[in-house]
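Quality-control log, excerpt.
Job 1 of 2 completed; input and output follow.
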Amino acid sequence: MSRVYGFLGGILVTTSVAYYTATEFRRNSEFVTGQLKQSREVLDNYGKPNPFVPRKIEVETRDDIKETMKDLWNHEIVRGVNWFYNIQWNVLGKRVENAAGKLVDSIKGATA
């Protein structure tokens, strides 16, 4: 019975290696094919002027002024919250501490 298991295990390992090797070859050949196509396109268009392609302008319209005002309000709220979250509180605390120390030192100097 152990010979059968060994035989089946060998078949499994061999077919797995063959499958993964074939898959890797296929991936590599697809990559090389894509690179060659890009190279051919670059070489074929070398020295030719690029055609002018006008850009399309997409305009987004809203139905009424109420929705526009809601969107502007929400945008301002989001900006305010983002500004608040971006405050570096430790740096701000050190600045306040330094300013308070300078104030105390200047008061001490003025009274001395």
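Job 2 of 2 completed; input and output follow.
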Amino acid sequence: MNRTTVGGPELGGGRGAGGVVVLVDPARAGRSPVAALLATELHPSVHLRTDDFLRVIRRGQLPPHLPEAERQNTTALAAAAQAAFAYATGGYQVVVECPAVPALDTFRRESRTTGAALHYVVLDPAPGRHTVDPTTLTPETTTKAVLAALATGTHLLGW
């Protein structure tokens, strides 16, 4: 048994590798508790927040909603994706917490470059291919629903 399967599911699809799940909550329906609980269920795991990659900018930070913040936001998202896949190639299961739908091409590019699996989950009541509806669930049951979806591969975007 390799270390990525001890104590929890493996995002790498049974290949003995780490993987990345991008967890998006556009309505902010409990994203933080779900992301933290999800990371607790995976082993070994890392929990990254894309917001943290913006907060580390000390001078010249712009509010991310402004059009002129596009370069800043793109750079921070690229840094988050690179960090996530660096951990994944080291065998970690990585939960990336995003407050809004990110430019997935950044994550897809890192997935293709590293060969690590990429999963995408949106916490949203609107039905969709990559959604989990958290509105009638607790953070714990939402986490279980996300884990079940990850186990079936329905949220897998690529390697």
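Post-run check on job 2. The chain has five helices and six strands.
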